[in-house]
Amino acid sequence: MRALCCILAVAFAVTLVAASTADNSAAVMRKLPENLKLGAATASFQVEGAWDAADKSESIWDTFCRIPGNIKDGTDGNDTCKSYEFYQRDIEMLKFLGVDFYRFSVSWPRVLPNGFANKISEDGIGYYSRLVDELLANGIEPVVTIYHWDLPQNLQDLGGWANPLIADWFEDYARVLFDALGDRVKTWVTLNEPKQFAVFGYGMAFCAPNIVSAGIGDYMAIKNLMVAHARVWHLYDKEYRPTQKGTIGIVIATDYREGASDSPEDIEAGKIAFDFEVGLYSHPIFSTTGGFPESVVKRIAERSAQQGFPRSRLPEFTPEEIEYIKGTSDFFGFNHYSTLFYAADSYKPGIFDIPSYNDDLGAVGTYGSYATTSVPHTTKIPGGIRKALNWVKDSYNNPEIMIFENGFGNLGGNNDIDRIDYYLAYLDAVLDAIEVDGCNITRYTAWSLMDNFEWNSGLSVKFGLFEVDYNDDKRTRTARASALWFKDLIATRTLDPDYEPRLEEIKF
Ligand code: NOJ
Questions:
Q1: Is the dihedral of CA 370, 490, 504, 87 positive or negative?
Q2: Is residue 405 annotated as a catalytic residue, yes or no?
Q3: How many CB atoms neighbour CB 93 within 10 A?
Q4: Strands 466-468 and 477-479: what pairing?
């Protein structure tokens, strides 16, 4: 039974202040390239709720949220949009927008309550199967992320991503998904944003599983996740692609990093920062040489030696692993929000723990002269997305790029002209990257379809095209001005820099 939507299209057409700003008002209307698919994204822990429905077990984020002080507003994943219950309304919203695809993720402990593949939850896999079926029935392509940070807690008890056996466990889990959904799902993402779950989760007290093993555990997780990713790509390539004929790749947070000035030292600081943030994950897969970027390997080895470690804290790949990982992504999955600038002289002894990832990187990133907002990591610097896209194109022989996340965070309000303004500027830069620079970009994804659980900020930070009312048991979703903008963009396939935002009362 679908169509739960109640569109109260009681138009109370509120005319809003025009969203166009000085920097793009001179621009012209631009047609979107025909092959650019448009979609919206969410992730399991951020929207599903139902943390203990049926036989689901706990994820590391369930555990993390329970510890007072970990989540800014004291909320947890169970308070979020309840999509496990209300997913049909999500589909109605996607239909309303007119998207080509929906990117969502699967909760590992929902499908495999033991973490291991000896027991598959009928309820868990049934949920995703229905979601896929109903998306397809509505003409929306499902794009499925296998891992978006919610590891089963029992696997974490065994070391999680710091245990090399994670490659076996991840492969077994992926096989279950390919078997159950691969007849209908044709685009897969192995891992979402490896830096964020490895470094924030195993090196800093910032994300689950909160293993603060700075400059050691984070690098162990990074090596293991690269191998695990490659295992799943090879599994799909050999055993499933011949019949299922889909595509599979990794998604890397590709926020741009550059020097704070034109001085050679600052330019170098920016390059090293980008190698740490992006190259660590992209180089092993997309470069012709393979392995971690030389600048990062050298820097960590030097620092490790100075600190008395008999070997580098960054575990090496064997030559076989280097070859095995090379080429294991059918596309470059690209998430992007903002840019940080690095000055070489920003490093002062004592500002970072030793050892640590930040100390190894060796400089402090800032937003320069750009005005930050309530969610600094979405500070609007649209030139950065074009530079990051070009870096991918130039470094890796112009691979297919799928932009799987881009969006703006704030503290709420439905007349979100700030969000529209951000999207207009970033999409304009994306079109420059395609049309002027020749980047091969085939998807653009808005993060997010609706407000959701923004990790350690809880429910306080909003990214949604749709607002979610958390005080209402039904978690009613209301279209923001940005939802109507996105709908208009998709309907006209035209980017209008002078778009006049509008607001109607539309609820799901
Ligand atoms: C990237 C992550 O993949 C997503 O989960 C998060 O909500 C957004 N960034 C916004 O911070």
A1: negative
A2: yes
A3: 25
A4: antiparallel
- Do residues 478 and 506 make contact, with C-beta atoms less than 8 angstroms apart? yes
pLDDT of residue 133: 99
CATH architecture assigned to 6-297+329-339+375-507: Alpha-Beta Barrel (3.20)
Best CA proximity match to 177, nearest among 220, 133, 236: 236
Let me know: does 164 contact 227? Beta carbons within 8 Å.
Answer: yes
Ligand 1 in contact with 144 (CB < 6 A)?
Answer: no
The residue whose CB lies within 8 Å of the most ligand 1 atoms, and thus the one to mutate among 45, 402, 405, is 405
Q: Which two tokens stand for residue 456?
A: 């350690």
Q: In this structure, what token pair is assigned to residue 119?
A: 């027991």
Kindly state the tokens that stand for 341. 């600038």
Token pair of 214 as six digits: 């700075």
Rounded to whole angstroms, the Cα distance separating 136 from 265 reads 52
| 353 CB neighbour count, 10 Å cutoff | 14
Output the six-digit token pair for 496.
């209008």
Nearest CA to ligand 1 atom 10: 454
Structure pTM? Answer: 0.95
Residue linked to tokens 């996607």: 94
- The residue ranges of every structural domain in the chain are 6-297+329-339+375-507
Kindly list the averaged pLDDT for each block of 10 residues, start to end, along the chain of length 508: 40 37 62 98 98 98 98 96 98 99 99 98 98 99 99 98 99 99 99 98 97 98 99 99 98 98 98 98 98 98 98 98 99 99 95 97 98 97 98 98 99 98 98 98 99 98 98 98 98 98 97
